[in-house]
Amino acid sequence: MQPGPYYQRDRQWQPPALTPDYKTSVSRSPQYSMISLETTVSEITGPVFGHNDIDPIDKDLLSNYAKPGESPIGERIILHGRVLDENAKPVPNTLVEIWQANSGGRYRHKKDTYLAPIDPNFGGCGRTLTDENGYYAFRTVKPGAYPWRNWVNNWRPAHVHISIFGSAFAQRLITQCYFEGDPLIAKCPIVNSIPDPDAVDQLVARLDLNATIPLDTIAYKFDIVLRGRRSTLFENRPEGN
Amino acid sequence: MRQTLDYLKETPSQTAGPYVHIGLAPGAAGFDIYAQELGHDIAGPNAKGERIRVEGRVIDGMGSPIKDVLLEAWQANTDGIYAHPEHLGEVEDGFRGWGRVIPDFDTGNWTFETVKPGAVTDLNGRQMAPHISLWIVARGINVGLQTRLYFSDETSANAADPVLNLIEWERRRATLIAERTDSDGTPVYRFDIKLQGEDETVFFDI
């Protein structure tokens, strides 16, 4: 059985382009319909990364920007889970990149002018490759909520941005992971760009006491699902049309 | 027993937000954290073929360049081979075919250097005109936008390209053609991407 085309992305599950409560989407959303494409070789291929591309410390945000002997201020967490496809098959050796604000909700970015201070021992980005079982893990601090100019009193729930490659350009995905129990999740226009409450629930990491290290670090579990693909059971249209 | 389908659902996308650079291009955000940042060299030093520069802007529905955008490029080598185990054939040592680019924060102009890809034979044997796949994320974009860049000096290949020919409105096909000029002997392809409104770029649901 050869792997075949990717499943159609469910556009009723994914957020639409135009979500006016998230104001920036109004001028940044195409008006015409997208052209649907049966995936060609250009989409079922994608970049391959290896252990030469990254360093082991890149996945440890508690130490990858801290001065020797110091560590960032905030709630120490492990953020871990598996990358699977829609067939529940693990996606091994794929690059997972994350970025986030510090525990006060401030990003280390020259465009962020929020008055909460920078943490001198926290950079806020990390990356790792999933193992052969699709498993990944980061160590970081739990990010804080922060205000943003949408409505005058909008606050983003605590979140970690996550970028995943998968094994094909068709699987390329950027999302945000939220934290169980955060009351800001239900209020956020970016979260609410997603129409289906079950889909929103899929973005909420669960407290994972089993993975928590006692007296050291709390854990949250966040599994990621990328598009799955058909198996080519039959040689359809071998004449090539 | 009732039969059930046990597929999982794809994780929903969310916007990359305004600070995507600290995660994916931290050097540009003003701090060095990684020993090597990924995506700076698409073709590598050993790639055969014509060296080109691609430049452009991403423009919103008001006609303003988007200065906090991030683009990724994915392309084949000069022989039309992707650096991926499912595409048979060899690529040059160091050819990755993937790159990541952000614009100048003041002007919104972005640029990347690569080699011009060759025509790609699809797995069903059909030939596609040379093209670079682009993926665009930014604040305000809920799901990354997919488009393709084709080349203005590939007129006959473009005319036969199966993907361009899926676009029913011939006028819209022109939004995917990068215009070639020469700058100090280096071929430069100009590719402005318009997210909305007049001459809106074609985006694909792949």
TrEMBL record, chain A:
<feature type="region of interest" description="Disordered">
    <location>
        <begin position="1"/>
        <end position="26"/>
    </location>
</feature>
<dbReference type="InterPro" id="IPR024756">
    <property type="entry name" value="PCDO_beta_N"/>
</dbReference>
<keyword id="KW-0223">Dioxygenase</keyword>
<dbReference type="InterPro" id="IPR000627">
    <property type="entry name" value="Intradiol_dOase_C"/>
</dbReference>
<feature type="domain" description="Protocatechuate 3,4-dioxygenase beta subunit N-terminal">
    <location>
        <begin position="7"/>
        <end position="40"/>
    </location>
</feature>
<protein>
    <submittedName>
        <fullName>Protocatechuate 3,4-dioxygenase beta chain</fullName>
        <ecNumber>1.13.11.3</ecNumber>
    </submittedName>
</protein>
<dbReference type="Pfam" id="PF12391">
    <property type="entry name" value="PCDO_beta_N"/>
</dbReference>
<comment type="similarity">
    <text>Belongs to the intradiol ring-cleavage dioxygenase family.</text>
</comment>
<feature type="domain" description="Intradiol ring-cleavage dioxygenases">
    <location>
        <begin position="44"/>
        <end position="228"/>
    </location>
</feature>
<dbReference type="GO" id="GO:0008199">
    <property type="term" value="F:ferric iron binding"/>
</dbReference>
<dbReference type="InterPro" id="IPR015889">
    <property type="entry name" value="Intradiol_dOase_core"/>
</dbReference>
<keyword id="KW-0560">Oxidoreductase</keyword>
<dbReference type="InterPro" id="IPR012785">
    <property type="entry name" value="Protocat_dOase_b"/>
</dbReference>
<dbReference type="InterPro" id="IPR050770">
    <property type="entry name" value="Intradiol_RC_Dioxygenase"/>
</dbReference>
<dbReference type="GO" id="GO:0019619">
    <property type="term" value="P:3,4-dihydroxybenzoate catabolic process"/>
</dbReference>
<dbReference type="Pfam" id="PF00775">
    <property type="entry name" value="Dioxygenase_C"/>
</dbReference>
<dbReference type="GO" id="GO:0018578">
    <property type="term" value="F:protocatechuate 3,4-dioxygenase activity"/>
</dbReference>
TrEMBL record, chain B:
<protein>
    <submittedName>
        <fullName>Protocatechuate 3,4-dioxygenase, alpha subunit</fullName>
        <ecNumber>1.13.11.3</ecNumber>
    </submittedName>
</protein>
<dbReference type="InterPro" id="IPR012786">
    <property type="entry name" value="Protocat_dOase_a"/>
</dbReference>
<comment type="similarity">
    <text>Belongs to the intradiol ring-cleavage dioxygenase family.</text>
</comment>
<dbReference type="GO" id="GO:0018578">
    <property type="term" value="F:protocatechuate 3,4-dioxygenase activity"/>
</dbReference>
<feature type="domain" description="Intradiol ring-cleavage dioxygenases">
    <location>
        <begin position="46"/>
        <end position="197"/>
    </location>
</feature>
<dbReference type="Pfam" id="PF00775">
    <property type="entry name" value="Dioxygenase_C"/>
</dbReference>
<dbReference type="InterPro" id="IPR050770">
    <property type="entry name" value="Intradiol_RC_Dioxygenase"/>
</dbReference>
<dbReference type="InterPro" id="IPR015889">
    <property type="entry name" value="Intradiol_dOase_core"/>
</dbReference>
<dbReference type="GO" id="GO:0008199">
    <property type="term" value="F:ferric iron binding"/>
</dbReference>
<keyword id="KW-0223">Dioxygenase</keyword>
<keyword id="KW-0560">Oxidoreductase</keyword>
<dbReference type="InterPro" id="IPR000627">
    <property type="entry name" value="Intradiol_dOase_C"/>
</dbReference>
